[in-house]
Amino acid sequence: MDSVTDGNDKALSINQFLQALAMTLAVRNKDTWEHSVQVTKYAVRLGLRLELSVEEIKQLHIGALLHDIGKIGIRDDILLKPCALTEDEYCQLKKHPEIGSKILEPASALDCIIPIVLHHHEHFDGKGYPQKLRGEKIPFLARIISLADAFEAMTSDRLYRKAMTPQHALEEIQLQLGRQFDPYLGKAFVKMIKEVDFTL
Ligand SMILES: [Fe+2]
Fold it and tell me: Where is the HD-GYP domain (predicted)?
């Protein structure tokens, strides 16, 4: 089935499908949705500075909005836990990239988004998850979202900890260049944030 039609023969477009999917995440977990919107802003801004193609920017936009869609498959007692997770709970949470990729799998128009969702927690040194990809084996757009994701997470309050200052978060990113993050993209990201926030 390529499309869903109503009496007026209006096809369910991929955009409408994406909006419905995004709304599912917003309803399931408002914090994750708000995080994804902020991650999208940082990721697209970096993509524009790197002069990516229109198509890549579109993929970055959709990939960032949906990077954590798999969290709709994570239990509330883990997703909403107000303190640090146990090792077992963390293992459950770490399944969200694979759950997200399964959710998108039936929509062939989103084939190019799946690698972003699946690999946004890989680390440049190969110590991330789910597949321990290393360096440039990690899809390029996933490496951008990894930076935006980490910066947004560090500078936001969580149920179990207070937000870091942007300055502190940038220092953490710099420490992780070549480890968690792509050094080239990481330097570009730090420069971009410093230019946007002149207090840094
Ligand atoms: Fe994630």
Answer: 10-200
